[in-house]
Structures are given as structure tokens and as C-alpha cells.
Amino acid sequence: MARRTPRPPVGSPFHLLVLLCSFALCAYAGVRLLDGDRLMITVWFVGAALIHDLVLLPLYAAADRALITVTAGRTAWVNHVRVPAALSGLLLLVWFPLISGRVSERYQAVTGLSADGFAARWLLITAALFGGSAVLFAMRTGRRRPAPEE
Amino acid sequence: MARSSLPGRLPRGPFSPGFWRSPLRGTWFTSVLGVVLLAGITTLFVTGLVSYAAYNPDLSPVNDRTPDKGVLGFYLFSWPTDPPWLYRLTQGVHVTLGLGLVPVLLAKLWSVVPKLFTLPPARSVTHALERISLILLVGGALFQFVTGILNIQLDYIFPGSFYPLHFYGAWVFFGAFLAHVVLKAPAAFRNLRRMRRGEGEEPDPELTAARPDPPTVTRRGALGLVGGASLLLVATSAGRSIDGPLRHTAVLTPHGGPDPGHGPGAFQVNKTAEYAGIRPDDTTEEAWRLTVTGRTGTVRLTRADLLAMEQHDAALPIACVEGWSTSDQAWRGVRLRDLAALAGHDEPADVYVESLQSHGTWRHAALSAGQVADGRSLLALAVNGADLTPDHGHPARVIVPAAPGVLNTKWVTRLTFGEL
Fold first, then answer.
1. Is there a domain that residue A97 lies in?
2. Residues of A in contact with B269 (CB under 8 A)
3. Record: contact A32-B69, CB cut-off 8 A
4. Pair (A104, A69) in one structural domain
5. How many Å apart are CA B274 and CA B278, to the nearest integer?
6. Looking at the partner chain, which of B143, B171, B391 has a beta carbon nearest the beta carbon of A44?
7. Of A67, B106, B344, B347, which residue is least crowded by CB atoms under 10 Å?
8. What is the mean pLDDT of residues B79-96?
9. Is the predicted pLDDT of residue A78 greater than 50, yes or no?
């Protein structure tokens, strides 16, 4: 039976209808979204997905792989580096405009608040995360070491 | 089952099933994250639509940054004034939950990335369309998170005005999100039920690694990291919705940390007088006049005239679209409905409010008759027992219960009552 169809099959008609309905709504909102700097808005929309999938994700995956290679699979302390690094990296990613100081001038002028200290606080949090992880690691290995009793 | 249509040429790199080696990937991990996002993103969408309605865009063109919205504004309603903390709650949830979902979104995208490289590119017409839909889904999700996160940090590098971008972007994203939920949620829930019955996860060769590396963390451990990251973001942000010592816990978030200044005016400011272009000369007792226009004509009032009118008190917060808010402040001033009556509107009417601000999107705004009618809606002259400071809108500002911050116009110079 499968022999007679060289054409691509259509697939589930229900799925097809759901997708067409979705595209119609996306198009209705999309023409309104693009009513402006059409090119740049498209670049931002599609670029966000491409940069995430083809730059950000491979970068942190490669960093993680490098960590596993360097630690030669000693899983005991892989996670003591991985977890604080991931949390600190995430905070940097989300608060990059404030931490990097690129919006300092505007932030100060607009809100009347100091824009200093975001980078310092991020570094302190990072230090606390790695420090806390090191203490935890020391406690765990310390607990394990006295075990041999021969 | 040959995965490639070209015999003898095996797919290489990320297109090869052996390329993806994390033992974490699989339908259980993806299902858990998917179900969390289903609840989270639905909440974000609803609170976002609520925030859109809170601006009363249908009331007047000055409140409407999206005049082409068409049926996307189908649900709009006149925004209420009760409870007075309504916008503080909905918008605080919108922004803080959005921040907390960043790690969940990133983990979800990581968990399904091998599917991006699946060969053949399309197994059927439907499959091809589904993959196109995923561009809208992933691009839309990231577009919404990135524009939101940049906007709360005042980093306006996105290509256009935030309101239309984030509003129409939300609908494009939601269109794709709906299809994704209809097509995938049943499988996710089925999978979680299977796991609960101890039957093991549903196999998916596109997700589960063909040759997995030895695990360095359990799946539960990985989910713990995602949850911990969410908690960290929420814990370092939520404090900016409360005054006092709790605000100091918002260490990396805009409008966190210590309040600005000292004394009665030491609470958060959306835009300083200097930034808004308010010239001190225009706000002196001699120079400043409030022009009130209505059915019976125009009245011009000095600040002393306003102080001679009956003064009322209202304890109300300031809540910003950026997600931060203040606790209740003790405002004192003239009721908007008394000013309406002064201009001949014994029945409360809509009002068009103008500021001395020389620039800024919200230098004029419209309030509904319902908002004017509320006895707590004031043209405030004082706060916390002292005259307004320049940054809080001296000589006079509007304060309305439950309204988004920017509708509480500062440095008011003209009120025009009547049908808008």
C-alpha cells in the first residue's frame, strides 16, 4: 500500500486545521505587529529564535561539555561548578543592561535612583553562589572521608 | 526505517541522532517543563490582556497606542477602581512571573533542540506547517520575553514603541502557542500520567539520546536547578512591589534597593521632573494655574484656590506597567468629582488630563467617568503629610485607585471634563 505514493503525504487533517487556524490568527496580529519598521521587527522576531538556537544554546552547551571534559567525569564536583555558574550566568543574561551599565545614565535620570552597584551586587551574588557551593562540597567530602575504618 | 532519503550518506553533526548526548532529554523532562509553561504563559497572557484593558484604550485616542487593534480588543471593559491594589497585583504578577519563567523557557527550548535538526525536514505537509509554526512559537516567546525584560530596564533598543510591539507580538505568539498546546498538551499530560503509574516515559527517538553520555545529574536534579533558578529570579525581584526593607531584597531589579530621597516623598518615581522637562519657573505659586473646562465654561484656579476647596484623603499605591509598585501612600487633595462639579458636571464625566510635561508619551491621558466618580480619585496636592515634591508632581497630580501609574498624570495643568 505504501508503494503507490511518491507525493508527500498530507498528514493529520485535524492537525492541519489547527495549524491553519493558528496561522490566520498569527497573520491577523502579524500585519499589525509589522506596521512599522517591518524589516527590523522581522529580524528581531526571527533573529531571537536563531540567536538562541544557533548561538546561545551551543555556547552554554559547549561550556558545559568543556566542564565535564576538564573534570574528567568526576560527577561529585561537576555540579558544584555547574549550578553556581548557571545561576550567575542567568542573572547576567537577564539583567545585562543594568549590570553592564549601558542604561546607567538614563536609569539615573528617569528614576532618580542610583544606577551604580548593579555590577558589584551581581559579582557579590556570584561570589556567594560559588562560595556556598564550595562550602557544601567541602562538607559533603568531609563527611565522606572519615568513613574508611580499617 | 531510513532517516535520510539519500542512501549511503549519513547525516552529520547536529543532524545525526548520535550528536545529542545528554541523558536528561526525553519526553518526561520536556512534558514537565511544558506543563509548567502552559500554566505560566497562560497567566502571563491573561495578566497582559488585563494590563492592556487597564489603560482604557477604548476611552480616548490619547490612551490608545494600538488604534489598529481590530478584534484583538474584543474583550475591553471599563477598568474598575476596586480593589485599589488591582493593577499592582496583576502587573506585579505579570512581570515577576515572567522573570521567573525565563529559566523554564530556556530549559524547555534546550530539551527539544534536537527536534530542530530532525531529518527529513518534513515528513508531511502538516509536519512542514508545524515546523513553520514553531518559528512563530519560539521567535514569539523570545521576542516577548526580550522586549519585556529590556523595557523594564529602560533599554529601548527594540525596533519601535513598546506598547504595540509587546501587544501585537503577544497575539502572534499566542496564536502559535494555542496550536502548540492543542497539538502537544494531550501527549504531555498522557506522559505524566504514565509516569505516575510507573510505566516509564513514552519513547521519542527525536528527544531521547541514541547514545547517551553517562549522567552527571539526575533529571530531578536538573529540574531542581531550573526551579531554583526561577526562585532566585523571583526572590531578587518581588521585593520591588513593596516599600520598606523588603524592597532591599530586589538587588538586581530596577526600582529595587533603597527608596529615592528622604522624608514624605521618599517613594518610587517613574519619571523625575527634570527628565520630564518640567521648568521650575512654570510651577511657582505665581506662574502655575489649573484650567478646568466643562459644560459651564472654563475656570482658572491657583494652588491657593485648590487648597481652599474641601480636601480629601486617600491611601493609594502607585503601580507601574514595568512591574514595580509602592505601598499605599497617604494622598491629600481635591476630589476629581468636585472639580467636575465646578465645571458644571454634577454627574461625573470623563476627563482629559494634560500635564506641563513637554515630551513623553503619557503627558496627556483620559480617565473614565467611573474613575472620576470614585471618591478616592484626587487631584493631589500633598502626600504623606507634606506638599508634593517636584518629582511626585508638584504643584498637583492625579491619583486614581487601581489605575496604571502613567494614568496618574503629574504636573497637571488642564482638566477638560465631558464626553471624550
1. yes
2. 111-112
3. yes
4. no
5. 6
6. B143
7. B347
8. 97
9. yes
Q: How many residues does chain B have?
A: 420
Residue A119 sits in the same domain as residue A134: yes
Average pLDDT over residues B64-88: 95
**Cβ contact, residue pair B143, A121, below 8 Å:** no
A44: nearest CA in chain B? B143
Reply yes or no on whether the pLDDT at B168 is more than 90. Answer: yes
Per-residue pLDDT tens digits for B119-151: 888 889 999 999 999 999 999 999 999 999 999
Between strands B329-335 and B312-316, the pairing is antiparallel
Q: Do A84 and A46 lie in a common domain?
A: no
Tell me if A134 is assigned to some domain: yes
- Among B106, B172, B233, the residue with its CB nearest the CB of A33 is B172
* Residue contact B233–A91, C-beta within 8 A: yes
Which strand (E) or helix (H) includes residue A17? helix A13-33
One domain, residues A86 and A57:
no
Q: Which of A50, A73, A96 is the last residue of a domain?
A: A73
| ipTM > 0.90 for the complex | yes
Q: Which of B125, B178, B275 sits opposite A110 (nearest CB)?
A: B275
Q: Which residues of B touch A113 (CB under 8 A)?
A: 255, 257, 260
CB–CB contact B125 A9 (8 Å): yes
Chain B positions touching A18 (Cβ under 8 A) are 179, 182-183
> Per the CB < 8 Å rule, is B176 touching A10?
no
The CA distance from B220 to B226, in Å, is: 10
Of the candidates B130, B135, B236, which has its C-beta nearest A19's C-beta? B130
Q: Is the pLDDT of residue A123 over 70?
A: yes
Min Cα–Cα distance to chain A from B334, Å: 27
Cβ separation B154–A19 shorter than 8 A:
no
The span from the CA of B182 to the CA of B188, in Å, is 11
β-sheet bridge partners, residue B353: B365, B415
Domain limits for position A56 = 38-73
* Banded pLDDT at A73 (limits 50, 70, 90): low
Residues A82 and A138 in one domain: yes
* Domains: count for chain A: 2
* A11–B123 C-beta distance less than 8 A: yes
The minimal CB distance from B159 to the residues A37, A90, A103 is found for A37
Report yes or no on A25 lying in a domain. no
Q: Are A121 and A64 members of one domain?
A: no
Pair type for strands B312-316 and B412-417:
unpaired
